[in-house]
Specification:
Mean pLDDT: 90
Number of strands: 2
Order of helices and strands: HEEHHHHHHH
Strand order of the largest sheet: 1-2
Number of helices: 8
Structural class: mainly alpha
Shape: globular
Low-confidence stretches: none
Length: about 200
C-alpha cells in the first residue's frame, strides 16, 4: 500500500528490507509491525510514522494535488473508498498476519496439530474479499473500486489479492476485484511497488 502511494505521488524513497520470518520488525514500532515511514522535515527534524492508512493519509495531506489524490472527491465516494480500505485493513489483513497465525497454530498444535492459523487466515481473506467484491461491484468503472481513478480502496484490495494467492484462496468468485487488479497492473505506480519488483524479492 505504502509503496504504491509513494510511487503514485512521485515521492522518492529508499527501501529498507525487513525479514518478518526473523522477527526483525519487533523493534521498529510500538506494535512491532511494518510498514514504517521515516523522513526529515524542512528543518531537519526526523519523524517516523507507522500503520499504512495513517501513512496514506499523511501522503495525501502532504503530496496530493488537484487531479492527483488517492481520496476521491465528494464525501460519499471518499467514505466509500475508506470503507473498502477498512474491510481489508481492519477486517481481513490482521487475521492473516504471520504473528497471529503463529499464535493460533501454536495453540491448536497442543490439541490436534493442525495449521489452524493458516486456515483462519484463508477464511478471513475469503470473507473480506467477498465483502469488498460487493462494494466494488456498485462502481460503474470496472477498473477501480470507487470512482474513475485509483484510491485508498485499490491500494488495499490489490495487495490483498496478491496475498490471497499465497494462501491458495480461489479468486474466481471476485471478478470485479480481479478487474481492478488487472488494470492496476498496467499503472506505473503499482508496477514499481509490486513485491516481485523489490530488491529483496525471491528470484525464480
Amino acid at each position: 500500500r505504502v509503496r504504491v502511494a509513494l510511487s503514485f505521488y512521485g515521492v522518492e524513497y529508499a527501501y529498507a528490507r525487513v525479514n518478518l520470518l526473523a522477527d526483525e520488525q519487533r523493534g521498529l514500532s510500538e506494535m512491532g509491525q511494518v510498514p514504517r515511514l521515516d523522513w526529515s522535515d524542512a528543518a531537519g527534524e526526523r519523524h517516523s510514522l507507522t500503520q499504512s492508512l495513517a501513512i496514506l493519509e499523511l501522503l495525501h495531506e502532504a503530496a496530493s494535488a488537484p487531479g492527483r489524490s488517492l481520496l476521491p472527491l465528494g464525501p460519499v465516494p471518499r467514505a466509500r473508498a475508506r470503507e473498502i480500505a477498512e474491510v481489508i485493513n481492519a477486517g481481513t489483513q490482521p487475521l492473516q498476519n504471520l504473528g497471529h497465525m503463529r499464535a493460533i497454530s501454536a495453540l491448536a498444535a497442543k490439541d490436534q496439530g493442525s495449521d489452524a492459523g493458516r486456515s483462519l487466515g484463508r477464511e478471513a481473506i475469503a470473507k473480506g474479499l467477498a465483502a469488498a467484491e460487493k462494494l466494488a461491484a456498485a462502481n460503474r468503472d470496472e477498473r477501480f473500486c470507487v470512482g474513475s481513478h485509483s484510491s485508498v480502496a485499490d491500494l488495499c484490495v490489490v495487495p490483498q489479492l496478491y496475498n490471497a494467492r499465497r494462501f491458495e484462496v480461489d479468486l474466481q468468485p471476485y471478478p470485479r476485484l480481479r478487474a481492478v487488479e488487472a488494470h492496476a497492473a498496467t499503472l506505473p505506480y503499482f508496477q514499481a511497488a509490486h513485491p516481485d519488483a523489490q530488491p529483496d524479492a525471491a528470484k525464480a
